[in-house]
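Q: Is it fine to ask for two folds in a single conversation?
A: Yes, each is treated on its own. Send the first.
Q: Here.
A: Result:
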Amino acid sequence: DNILGQYSQGGSTDESIYCKIYSGDPIKVNRKTGDKKAINVDNPSFSICWALQPDSAEKLSSNPSMIESGLIPRFLVYNSHAELADEPRELLRIEHDVKDRWRHILLTLLSFRDRPVGANRIISPSPEAFVVFADFADLAKQAGRSSGILHDLPQFPGRYGENCRKIALILHASEHLENCFNLSISKETAQKAVNLMQWYVWEQLAFLGDIRFKRSYKRVTKLKEFLFRRDEQQDTAGQIKKAIGYELQEIMHLAKEFPHEIQVREKETSTKGGRKSFIVSIPRQNQNNL
């Protein structure tokens, strides 16, 4: 509710501070009450683990502002599809040595916050790991381009590379602990991070499936409403772009996804050469049904 702006003046969303913290950008908050009128945080850092009900997660992810701002694409999403479980028949315990190892790891990682000024705080990838990260990021960006499978949600693949590097950083620091600043991220660790990120990508795509369909259906409905008012319920792609801002590539994707709602064909011309023109129309059998 806070992020969606329920308690803000005018109902504006309040995700910008979370986006800045994700990248470690400085934060300044101006306050109307209290002794301090402004709060400055130079090196913000925190981790968020949300356990949301599916309907709450869908509500958050369906908000255009949450996607356009990049907040939701910064998260690694997983839907457990949890079922009601049977009661255990014996008391479940975590072994003491397991708890001790985790305690040591977490306390060591937390201690890095208190490294003295001037101490090495940078962990770099090895040249081989750098290539692994770059290859994965380029592949992700291809998916977000106009011809890619995530052309309608480019904000998500735009963050895959950065999230992958963050995963690698955690794996590296957890493995090497106190010595992590003296070693580069290895190619093997980078590949483990890529594998983990790819798993999260597929989980995210499954979660976004219904949201993407509803979004596309809303877009194709708007396009049909425009065509319905045109002569013969058709118009050129160029005129559609001028009127409602739809690019040809998006129209092509919508026609492929909803072939019974709209269709696209190349306009026949009497002269050779020149730029191709495309006609977008409502299929004849569907022209009386908006």
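Q: Second one now.
A: Result:
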Amino acid sequence: MDGSFVGGRGIDDFEPVRADFIEAAEAYLNRIAALDEHTELDVREMHGTLADLQAGAARLSGSVQLGEAGHRSTYAAIEKLSYDELRRRLRRLPLDSYFVTFDPFDAASPPVLATIADDLADIYDDLVTGFEKRASDGLVRAIDTWELLYYSHWGRHAVHAQTALWQYLANRELD
């Protein structure tokens, strides 16, 4: 195989995949950056933003083998906020603490306390790391970074946060 096809897909088939992920990542970063200590997070919007981000990340697998052609990011200034600044901006969440099981296949795995603010801050940090990698080493390295961090770190935070936000919305709808 010459590398021009991955899983029966041609090079041009992956351009929308990359563009969709980068657009979702930029939307997420912009949504978090727009928050301040006086702005309450819109739970429904964040739930949708996380869904778009997660779907985009899940489709990235395999697209990195196809070279540098790709979406030009409009995310011009990457302001890497400190963890303390992110926590300050996320202070006005209508919900925060929830319980999660880290290994759903281990019946002995106890539920642990997690926070939406920590989830959103970790996702933010890992996405910015990918954009920094893109600026320094190009799109292929950025996609490698996003994919590695998705499966090793921020993907779990996205799933857990999305589940907690869904439950919060469902409880409000059913009341």
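Q: Anything structural to flag on that second result?
A: Two points. The longest helix spans residues 139-174. The first strand starts at residue 5 and ends at 6.
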